[in-house]
Fold each of these.
Amino acid sequence: MLIARLIICVILLAASCSGISAASSRRTSRSSSTRRARSTETSFSLSGSFPSIFLGDEHMNNPGQQSALRAKLSMVLDTVEPHYSDALHRVHELREPKVASLLQELLLLTREGATGSGRHLEASIAPAGAEAAEEDAVGLRRRSDRETSSPKPPKPLSKPLSTLPSPQSLVDWSHKIGSRLAQLPAGTSFPVLRRLLTAVVVRAWLDGAGKRLTEVEEEAVSGLFVQLYMLHRRGAMNRGIMDYQHVSKSGGTSWCHAAQLNGCTTQRFDRFFVCGVSSFDDKVRWVDGAAHTRLTGAEPTRWYLHGTYRSEGAPGCASRAAQMLANRWTYYRNPLRRLASHLRFILLHYKRFMTAQVEEGVEKSADFFTTYAGANASFWSSVAPAISDNYFARTLLGEAAWHAPVGGITADTHLAPARLVLMQYDIVVPLESPTELTSRLLAFGAGWPVSYTDVHDKNITALQEMFDFDPSPHMPSSDEMDILYGRQQIDMDLYGLAVLIGQLDYLVYSTAAAAGVVPWDGMPDNVNPEEDNVNYRVACGLLRGPGGAWSSHMVHRRRRANGGAAGRETRVRRRSDAASLEETSRRDQTG
Ligand SMILES: *[C@@H]1O[C@H](CO)[C@@H](O)[C@H](O)[C@H]1NC(C)=O
Ligand SMILES: *[C@@H]1O[C@H](CO)[C@@H](O)[C@H](O)[C@H]1NC(C)=O
């Protein structure tokens, strides 16, 4: 079955995959520098913040909401299952021996674990040699790495994590977990573990009928959360590069722009390239060219690579993952809004493209107004299968699922693996969450004081003005939209998980902030992106890299483009040790 062959990687089927790294700055990382009290946050009470974060003020004492939250937390705990059933290979974090043994010991939640025998069960992982061999060759490995043999499946857990009781003593459990976390290697941020452990704490709070934790419990749990934040910070700093997943119409372009404003460098940033690394061959694959021709009689115009796989020459998942040593961060947006936004965007541009074909006398051309304009759900399903059917799930699962026909993505087969992929992103930012939350996620997750809220790229209103065309009247009728909306169940479920992940991370980051931890020394609370030298000051926040932002193997070129928020400054990155990332300035097809 196709899904069994899925591996963890970041494939950007929508628009682009990105290498973003620290900008040039004279400041080197001073990682020791973190505890600096911030007066505004001294009154923070950890468990006192649970109701407003997880239930919303109006639902604080609502038993129905509490049990819904409990069910979601159980779901989070069981997101690791596809790793043990071998539905997903290469869930790197869970194969890390110390993480693997902690999970085999059921997060120390069993009575046996709680007695603190200190027994570290042997993790059932692939022999170290196998992984090493694979990574050695990555520089040269190409797409054939999709077919490399899968690592040995891990031994299943004796019980699903959701079936375990809450810790008998949160204090003891926090201390024991803390000593295990202290043994974890640098270089990874352990997002899955962080979310599992936070979910355990919030569930324990629900078990206590939502009463505040005692002072000693607060202290022990806060210490654990600060430690989780330190792991994240260390992991991000050690890598110094971010691989973000661009989910179209969900803030992908703006993410790249925010990275630029925070002083990161990438291969290229402008309205069309959005941090794409050309050699990855990640292109826009929104429209099925053959269906377009069948339904309109016209030649395909743009973005018509649905059904066309990346070129054989482009680096595949394993080599890409190893080359990028990547963080994985992404925005999430309510899938129904994403869908409507996507259709409007295509209508806006296809009116131009198709009209141009007619005007240029292309032999096979068609009238936009009798084809795409006002088209029904079945038309859209044919020309844009991914867009009209669980786009997030397809994006998360990569090529193995992306090109499936409408209806080919099912909850039984795809939901659990997609959830586990989502859990592995270091930062997940739900676009519709309150600004206070999203700013915290960026400030503490990436160390970026210039937040997404300062950036509004691909603003549809501005585009409408530019092209003097309003696509709204040409959207499918509301009945037809309802058909399309009704199909996004798997994505809605994933979005629910994304929102909860955002809340769990917010809790950890807020605890760290209250303890006086700052992402990096000297980070301003906020900065005006219009200000001069902001990107030199911020230097990509946590992503300045282990050697500081002036790493010797990077050459930076600074170019100023005229006007336009989107292209103020572009830098080019070269890495002598990653020849395949060399930019080719090949024009991507994103615009
Ligand atoms: C949808 O529109 C196409 C024309 O594009 C038409 O052939 C088809 O019958 C319509 N389907 C429904 C269910 O209305
Ligand atoms: C989008 O652009 C319009 C017109 O240029 C502007 O009025 C509006 O505030 C912009 N929206 C956002 C979210 O930036």
Amino acid sequence: MRIQLGSRRRRLSLHRALVATAIFTVIGLLVLTLRSVDPSTHLPITTSDSENRDANPADITNLRSDSAQSLKTCATVEEMGEAFSREFSEESYRVRNIIQNHFAINGASRVRALPPEEFCRHGFVLGKASEAGFGNEMYKILTAAALSVMLNRSLIIGQTRGRYPFEDFISYSNISFTLKEIKHLWRQNGCLTKYGRHLVIRIDDFQKPARTNVLCSNWRVWEQPIIWFQNTTDAVAAQFFLKNVHDEMRIAASNLFGKPDDLHHRPNVFGELMRLLISPSENIQHAVNWALSGGADPDIALHMRMLMNRSVRAVQAAFSCIRKSVENLKLTSKPRVVLVSDNPSLVKDIAPDLNQFAEVLHFDFKSFKGNISGNSHVHTLNFRTKDWGTAPRWVAFVDFFLASRAKHAVVSGAHRRVGTTFAQLVAALAAANSLDDRSSAGSNFTFLSSFQSNLLAEGLKNQIGWGHVWNRFAGTLSCHNQSKQCAHTPILPPAWWDGLWQSPIPRDVHRMEAYGIRLSGFGTFDDNQLHSFCSSRKQFVLTVPLI
Ligand SMILES: *[C@@H]1O[C@H](CO)[C@@H](O)[C@H](O)[C@H]1NC(C)=O
Ligand SMILES: *[C@@H]1O[C@H](CO)[C@@H](O)[C@H](O)[C@H]1NC(C)=O
Ligand SMILES: *[C@@H]1O[C@H](CO)[C@@H](O)[C@H](O)[C@H]1NC(C)=O
Ligand SMILES: *[C@@H]1O[C@H](CO)[C@@H](O)[C@H](O)[C@H]1NC(C)=O
Ligand SMILES: *[C@@H]1O[C@H](CO)[C@@H](O)[C@H](O)[C@H]1NC(C)=O
Ligand SMILES: *[C@@H]1O[C@H](CO)[C@@H](O)[C@H](O)[C@H]1NC(C)=O
Ligand SMILES: *[C@@H]1O[C@H](CO)[C@@H](O)[C@H](O)[C@H]1NC(C)=O
């Protein structure tokens, strides 16, 4: 039986209550009574002392017992994931339209042809990435794309020495500009000579909280022709605009990302943007086709980031998560499951069991005879090996595009942190791809996280990476000593503030304070406090003239 969380209004007032409660104490004063029989859940808030938190979690979390009520001061990962188990295709179609309309107006082919006077008044957003970890770098470009939509500006994708990031493995669509072309057009149109307009970049560094204007400034009125929002390595940075103090920015942000307090109605923004912006290069595509050996697209993809570790528990948890996902799918034929891991031994460990009910696919680069070299040889460095495995760099791109062909589900597991940026982007792109087929009965795409019990001994406390999807749930509301879990996971990883079970870890509370946000133990904060933070703060402006 599914537990429905309360209406939006109820959650809002809950949050207000939580803010008030949080003033008195940091840890769990939240006692929730959930009734699995009654779909309109009652969430009475009472204060209690912290001893309640030490109650046996097995009692607290026994949600599904039909016996009326139980106390809840924490949730398991699966319970947290319930809010994300809903279908999201309607929201994603809505956002797909917004993005398409945006690029119809702001895409390079139209803007390039604008008359000089109009061109010289046009605005741009620059997305620039290096070739460090693919997930983080891709989010930089996707954040720029999202910002270009919010600000009604065109997108520029930055190149380094004339090359796009990961250009050997990724093709970029023609809807964006390069900086080189903008400079050329700026001169050709006489923007400076005839209209007196300098080509200036305004730079905002997200990772310098004391300087970034992400929360305090109205970016829509910025006059500089180019805006570069730097160091935005995950899904969170763009969603900070949902909390910007200016109405205009908040409206632009929630037009794209959905209402922040409505976490289970969030569209697949990054997947939709990615689908439009990138595709595999020809040689990577060739390898993907080879791995599929002419067969149909996989039904399910499993991504396991093992950091060279070989963990029996991780394998067992992932195995049961895949089995659960297969059971939900009710496929008529044997499911095709593609395995992706930085550790080849994982594939050997899990394949024999999976083979009993699934057809296992894996890109074995050693038997692939194609010619993919590329100029990235960073993979040979030792520090990269622990992070990304021993396979050459290009293999990760084959894996990425192969896994993103999964039609129904992506499962993410890990040795330590589940839901890496790589896995999130696989799931987002796969979900966007699967939405193509409107007629398909199976457009219920699911993203699942597989947790082995040892990752949950202290709840989600060790999911400490900012870019990692469960990080925002890792605080005091996460039950300790959970058994292994297979949890629904948001396709758009939320920011901090609106999920019922979101709670921060101290490290992030500290970090958010520098942005002007004083998070409570329940992941809520006081807007008024942010307003006064913003008004007492001097606006920082950094610009670089190009022409
Ligand atoms: C976006 O910019 C175009 C011109 O580039 C303008 O016609 C349109 O009204 C703008 N839309 C919004 C929502 O500001
Ligand atoms: C841009 O790419 C699309 C699809 O790949 C193609 O149909 C279109 O003709 C291209 N436009 C230009 C101006 O090259
Ligand atoms: C942000 O990115 C820029 C350029 O990519 C880099 O120079 C700068 O050091 C970064 N800032 C931080 C805080 O890492
Ligand atoms: C692998 O993980 C297990 C359990 O998390 C740990 O005990 C072991 O030390 C790890 N091994 C390596 C090589 O990191
Ligand atoms: C492999 O590709 C490189 C450049 O992409 C090319 O120079 C080389 O001749 C190719 N080798 C073979 C055997 O095709
Ligand atoms: C998605 O799943 C829900 C519940 O499992 C079901 O009611 C709905 O029909 C499904 N939608 C599609 C398009 O398969
Ligand atoms: C979790 O298990 C450990 C070891 O069995 C125990 O020390 C700890 O008190 C348990 N925590 C909770 C919240 O039950």
